[in-house]
Amino acid sequence: MNKITLSLLAALSAIPAFADVEYKLSIDQPAHHLGDVKVIFPKTSQAHLDIHLPDWRTGRYEILDLANGIRFFEAKSENGENLQWKKIDKNTWRIHLDEPTEVNVSYQVYANQLGMRSRHIDDSHAFIDASGFFMFSDSFRQEPVTVDLDVPKGWRSVSGMDFADDKHSFKADNYDILLDSPIETGINDLYKFEVDGRKYELVIWGEGNYDVELMLSDLKKLVKTGSLIWHDYPYERYVFMVHATSGARGATEHLNSTIIQRHRDSFAKRDDYIGFIATAAHEFIHTWNVKNYRPAGLVPYDYIAPNYSDLLWLSEGSTSYLENYLLLSAGITSNEEFYKDLNKTISRHLKTPGREVQSAAETSFDKWINAGGDHGRNFSTNIYSEGSLVSLALDIDLLDKSEGKVSYRDVHSELYKQFKLPKSFNSQDVQNILKQISGRDYSTWWKENVESPLSIDFDALLATVGLEYTRPDNSKAVAGLDVMAKSNGELLILSHVARESSAWQGGLTAGDKLVALDGRQVRKSLKDSLALFEPEQEVSVSFIRRHQLMTTKVKLTSDFDKPKKVKAVKAPTERQAKLYKAWTGVEHPNAIYTNPQ
Hints:
By secondary structure, this protein is an alpha+beta fold. Helix content is 29%, strand content 28%. A seven-stranded mixed sheet has the order 4-7-2-1-11-14-13. Strands 23, 24, 25, 26, 27 and 28 form a six-stranded antiparallel sheet that branches. It has a five-stranded antiparallel sheet with strand order 8-9-10-15-12.
């Protein structure tokens, strides 16, 4: 045998054999949020095996340090002999191998991060996002995996993954699919339905004031709307997971499912219910946008480092924008409810001074470090609201210039067709698509609206589609201070002072405790306190900082007692009505003709 053949055989012997990675999670101390994990990695002849727990989870672009809940780590050979190992960074364990062997790892997980939707165990259930439970090795990341659960009697296990050997056992083609297919196991209610040949499940953990029949009815309407944007569905089965909790709230998209968390008493009121079904629509859209096409920098996912992209506004903000289109088109929400949500987004944008500082592209790239609070509101924005408004401006521009024939939905349709995973796209790719579908160059528009802080003339923009952004006729001018404050009983504590406002220039800052305005003790709300004064009036502000009483002069601003609202114009032109329908999928509420289309 020649030297080349010997070298080739030696190299091949170091490559792991094709075999399943086997995971087992045992839960016998649920009240203490503890689970025991065992992992069997296939036989390998590597000199060492590095295994990691992810440092973040998909859908939440933030380092979470998930390895902080790992204890009692052990590594053994296939013969049960202890293997030497050393932790080489905060979430990597290096196991030394003297001879070829499969590697058996065990450790304990503390799972009490319900609100992060990464891991949670208690005496009624476990929510299992693999990023918080199951370690991986790059050597075996593409190998098939199985997951076996040993859970308390009476628990039911549900996942978007396929079942394996029994009702608490699942399988996936590789670790990436496992990581994007959470498991809900515990005491829950399960409802199954079918729409257009695809199977769906709704699993609910926790009691609440929800109406299951209404949820099922609207989910059936919602899942039919995918074809309004994309040419096919990327799944045959999809699971809606709902947590009715006492505190945690939020949601996360996954490859074949979503997890939605809401307070158990926030389903019954119409506004609360709209919040739930809008969240379901948002995560449903993510099945395409993010889970089947996503920006470069996030393909493939790097689970142990930030994944940077200047297009997260498109991944998240566009999804927020499109969710309302699906809900309105499906007849789940009304025109008025559509306007109300749009109004909320515009109002939030206009009350965020950071909109003048940070562009949609910049806030996307900085998502991993952007913080909230007073400084965040003054100097930053976020991928959701800015992305939604960039999408709105782009959508109406496309509709306007094409007489309703081309819309922003076409952009996402083409992204799915041209850049389905494992491909990825960048900003230039999106601009190329815009040119393909519209015949126009959007490079200047992109620089002005995506790469620069967004500045929209909402009056002109909304008028294009037969809407207006106005105050109620009976609005009155009132004094303002351009701050946010909460009462602690006797004082008003500032949580935000708008950048460059008169209050800012007067030296007030977040954390100051307002005592009096012109010698008059503040009332239980800022609104009531300011009601005693006139717009543009200069007042003396007494406040406490560092336990000392201080005073400054501030000129009050001119505000209004009622905010501006989005509403339909009373008599839209034929063109406005036409573009409105092309935009929303429904007739303008005040249209005086029936669109022949």
